Amino acid sequence: METPPETGEAAELLSSNNAIGLFDSVDAFLFDCDGVIWRGDTLIDGVSKTLDFLRSKGKKLVFITNNSTKSRKQYWKKFRSLGIEVSEDEIFSSSFAAAMYLKVNNFPQDKKVYVIGGEGILEELKLVGYTCLGGPEDGKKTVDLQSDCLFEHDKTVGAVVVGLDPYINYYKLQYGTLCIRENPQCLFIATNCDAVGHMTNLQEWPGAGSMVAAIAGSTEKKPVVVGKPSTFMMDFLLHKFNIRCPRMCMVGDRLDTDILFGKNAGCKTLLVLSGVTSLSSLQDPSNRVQPDYYSNKLSDLLQLLAE
Amino acid sequence: METPPETGEAAELLSSNNAIGLFDSVDAFLFDCDGVIWRGDTLIDGVSKTLDFLRSKGKKLVFITNNSTKSRKQYWKKFRSLGIEVSEDEIFSSSFAAAMYLKVNNFPQDKKVYVIGGEGILEELKLVGYTCLGGPEDGKKTVDLQSDCLFEHDKTVGAVVVGLDPYINYYKLQYGTLCIRENPQCLFIATNCDAVGHMTNLQEWPGAGSMVAAIAGSTEKKPVVVGKPSTFMMDFLLHKFNIRCPRMCMVGDRLDTDILFGKNAGCKTLLVLSGVTSLSSLQDPSNRVQPDYYSNKLSDLLQLLAE
């Protein structure tokens, strides 16, 4: 039997009593985006005022998203379109994390990267100087299953990066599978393993966890995960902001990625119920991840501090 | 720590000394097809003569395949086209197993089945009287990811059956995912979980294990597996042939499906090296599944018995 992970104490509802303590004890707030800052293309009520207030009090703000479909620059544009001023440096997307993982591991520039995922991953990889194959371009490709047909792949591919891909097909699955199965040195990198996500306002859709599992299933290999709950991105953050983890608070809407990431890194954690997690699932006996605090939405913090 | 499964004794090379003992001790031979009987569309050397010999000696022959793309009838046609006479009743495909699983579990006829997989699954389900959605027909469907778009699904779907699907796409992933996530009663059935298979003569391609993992990844559920190494099909076999498992020999080319199936059921086991398993992978210290015997190909049995 594996020892179950520590459950910790039950989360406290954020209140006027504990909000000031949380506020005073941290120098940086780390935010997940979807379900915390926005839902789909709509800003969540009170977010803008809350971020302005935190900045005015000298708190650092960082945005950490597992959504790999956009690059940092594309996220920066999205923030602007919603009326929020951020700098690209404050944004840590799992597409950026994938590029950084290759960079810090000295992945050679003469090797190529095969991408199952969106334009955001390609953009980040190109910014670091890597040559990519796959991505949206392979979304319309089909396979020839005639018995004597050979599926060719580029033997210089040294890494396969898999993220959310709404244009997943058998061509991409075979390409990624051959790269990994026929070359034991080939890296298998997952931007994240979220089971589902709000691809549209009204519904959840299969997330990167679905495509990553498909490749893990065909290759019988486990990926290196660079997005939350992996703390890979934390090193970049620490380097950039020079703040210790206990002086950070991770704010997110998912227990198994955001809150687990915060706890893994030794940050304080605040769950907001404005995204995928309901109060009943937080309080369900089967839930093993307890944040320090929870509240309905991010702006509750502002309101409680003003009381 | 989980206890590792029993490894058993190392496999014996089939020889003129032990072949007669194996032959005398069994009344039925169970064969995997791809890699044992044929490779792609080519019969493996000596198979026809060997099957004729076994039949002439009164042995029962059964063909058990994890490949769900064909129905029993379609397999029967394939055998005939290769010049081998079998009856449909001797063929147990994982497409048939999926239909039988629903039948023996009294799956209601007024519920529908959503299929991610090939025509063979649809055929078998229809033979038992079920109404199917999905399958090849959904292979060209696309999704609308506009933020206010709602993806509709039939709420009367009570089971999702997943097999090998070369036309996998995001539409099918979302359909299957919604059926399972939005209805806790919905069954999730995998025809099999083979990582790869010889979709063409020259190469391996992602197998049902890839599509099954994709749905397991998005639904956070584990499937019921009806193909090998699950022994679900064995009950039908026992009922039909009235032979005890120790008087059967499973012949296959895969350790993790065929040989494990035979061992799980308590049959004797013979690995042939004419398919996906090499001698070095059989003898690799990491291999935990040892057949009783191994030989290069099925017809070795005939040759050794004649010596």
Automatic annotation (TrEMBL), chains A, B:
<dbReference type="Pfam" id="PF13344">
    <property type="entry name" value="Hydrolase_6"/>
</dbReference>
<feature type="binding site">
    <location>
        <position position="228"/>
    </location>
    <ligand>
        <name>substrate</name>
    </ligand>
</feature>
<dbReference type="GO" id="GO:0046872">
    <property type="term" value="F:metal ion binding"/>
</dbReference>
<dbReference type="InterPro" id="IPR006349">
    <property type="entry name" value="PGP_euk"/>
</dbReference>
<dbReference type="InterPro" id="IPR023214">
    <property type="entry name" value="HAD_sf"/>
</dbReference>
<feature type="active site" description="Nucleophile">
    <location>
        <position position="32"/>
    </location>
</feature>
<keyword id="KW-0479">Metal-binding</keyword>
<dbReference type="GO" id="GO:0008967">
    <property type="term" value="F:phosphoglycolate phosphatase activity"/>
</dbReference>
<comment type="function">
    <text>Photorespiratory enzyme that dephosphorylates the 2-phosphoglycolate produced by the RuBisCO oxygenation reaction.</text>
</comment>
<feature type="binding site">
    <location>
        <position position="32"/>
    </location>
    <ligand>
        <name>Mg(2+)</name>
    </ligand>
</feature>
<keyword id="KW-0150">Chloroplast</keyword>
<dbReference type="GO" id="GO:0009853">
    <property type="term" value="P:photorespiration"/>
</dbReference>
<keyword id="KW-0460">Magnesium</keyword>
<feature type="active site" description="Proton donor">
    <location>
        <position position="34"/>
    </location>
</feature>
<dbReference type="Pfam" id="PF13242">
    <property type="entry name" value="Hydrolase_like"/>
</dbReference>
<dbReference type="InterPro" id="IPR006357">
    <property type="entry name" value="HAD-SF_hydro_IIA"/>
</dbReference>
<feature type="binding site">
    <location>
        <position position="34"/>
    </location>
    <ligand>
        <name>Mg(2+)</name>
    </ligand>
</feature>
<keyword id="KW-0378">Hydrolase</keyword>
<dbReference type="InterPro" id="IPR036412">
    <property type="entry name" value="HAD-like_sf"/>
</dbReference>
<dbReference type="GO" id="GO:0009507">
    <property type="term" value="C:chloroplast"/>
</dbReference>
<keyword id="KW-0007">Acetylation</keyword>
<keyword id="KW-0601">Photorespiration</keyword>
<keyword id="KW-0809">Transit peptide</keyword>
<comment type="similarity">
    <text>Belongs to the HAD-like hydrolase superfamily. CbbY/CbbZ/Gph/YieH family.</text>
</comment>
<feature type="binding site">
    <location>
        <position position="253"/>
    </location>
    <ligand>
        <name>Mg(2+)</name>
    </ligand>
</feature>
<keyword id="KW-0597">Phosphoprotein</keyword>
<protein>
    <recommendedName>
        <fullName>Phosphoglycolate phosphatase</fullName>
        <ecNumber>3.1.3.18</ecNumber>
    </recommendedName>
</protein>
<keyword id="KW-0934">Plastid</keyword>
